[in-house]
Design a protein that fits this description.
The chain is an alpha/beta fold and 251 residues long. The chain has one domain (5-246): P-loop containing nucleotide triphosphate hydrolases (Rossmann fold, 3-Layer(aba) Sandwich). It has ten helices and ten strands. Strand 1 (5-14) and strand 2 form a beta hairpin. The longest helix is centred in the middle third of the chain and has 14 residues, at 117-130. The structure holds adenosine-5'-triphosphate. Adenosine-5'-triphosphate (ATP) is lined by residues 14, 19, 37, 39-45, 57. This is Phosphate ABC transporter ATP-binding protein PstB. InterPro entries: AAA+_ATPase, ABC_transporter-like_ATP-bd, ABC_transporter-like_CS, P-loop_NTPase, PstB-like.
């Protein structure tokens, strides 16, 4: 079975205020799904439910189900560390740890108990290669990751995520803090790796969604308005609200 992630009737409340009004979606292995919609529609809130990041906040209530390969990720049987390993996350601001490139990428595997230097070397190299940053850093793996450019930092963060061999990668506006050339590199990295992962990407950049995603989900005011193949959605959306949004008529 593929690494399918799905939500069913997912509702989220901040205190008494309902921010997500029952979202059902299915994300498939080998695909990039873009989440789009105007500011405040709930994209980040929804994304953060998918690896239980919202658990860190007080006063949040979640109902409905989220399943990874048929298993409820909110079940007490699932440990949070297991979920974070299987469902990795990359943020808007590149957030490498303030230590070497090597140690950034080796961080997750070390925490999971990998000690053998050869094995770690191999994981670091493979992950940096997959993230399309190896050639730029291979001669200087001891360099502090925070000294890299923003685009390089973001690809190191992607490598750090890949190093623990996740099933799903969540990305919250991963290129919005980057210059256009770095953004293109991150986009092509995502397209290169997508066959092996289930990738879910929040983006404000419509060109980016249409360039790299297979499916697109359009959200508005905490609701899912439309979900379809990206090409269909951009060329011929079912819903007039989707078409208005994609044509810049609001938001
Ligand atoms: N920690 C929080 N506590 C209370 N309300 C919150 C919290 N985080 C988000 N919200 C509210 O939930 C709604 C959805 O916000 P969210 O950040 O998920 O939207 P978004 O679509 O990701 O927006 P943006 O594109 O601007 O990042 C907004 O009304 C926001 O004010």
């Amino acid at each position: 079975m593929g690494k399918i992630l799905s939500t069913k009737n997912l509702r989220l409340y901040y205190g008494k205020s309902e921010a997500l009004h029952g979202i059902s979606l299915k994300f498939l292995d080998g695909e990039i799904t873009a989440l789009i919609g105007p500011s405040g529609c709930g994209k980040s809130t929804y994304l953060r439910c998918l690896n239980r990041m919202n658990d860190l906040l007080d006063n949040v209530t979640i109902t409905g189900t989220i399943k990874l390969q048929g298993k409820d990720i909110y079940s007490p049987k699932m440990s949070k560390s297991e979920i974070r390993k299987k469902i990795g996350m990359v943020f808007q601001q590149p957030n490498p740890f303030p230590f070497s490139i090597y140690d950034n990428v080796a961080y997750g595997p070390r925490i999971s108990g990998v000690k053998d230097k050869k094995v770690l070397d191999e994981i670091v190299e493979t992950s940096l290669k997959k993230a399309a940053i190896w050639d730029e850093v291979k001669d200087d793996l001891k360099k502090n990751a925070v000294a890299l450019s923003g685009g390089q930092q973001q690809r190191v963060c992607i490598a750090r995520t890949l190093a623990v061999n996740p099933d799903v990668i969540l990305l919250d506006e991963p290129t919005s803090a980057l210059d256009p050339i770095s953004s293109v590199k991150v986009e092509s990295t995502l397209m290169d790796i997508k066959k092996d992962y289930n990738i879910i990407l929040v983006t404000h950049n419509m060109q980016q969604a249409s360039r790299i995603s297979d499916k697109t989900a359009f959200m508005l005011n905490g609701r899912l308005i439309e979900f379809d193949k990206t090409e269909k959605m951009f060329l011929n959306p079912e819903n007039k609200i989707t078409s208005d949004y994609l044509n810049g008529r609001f938001g």
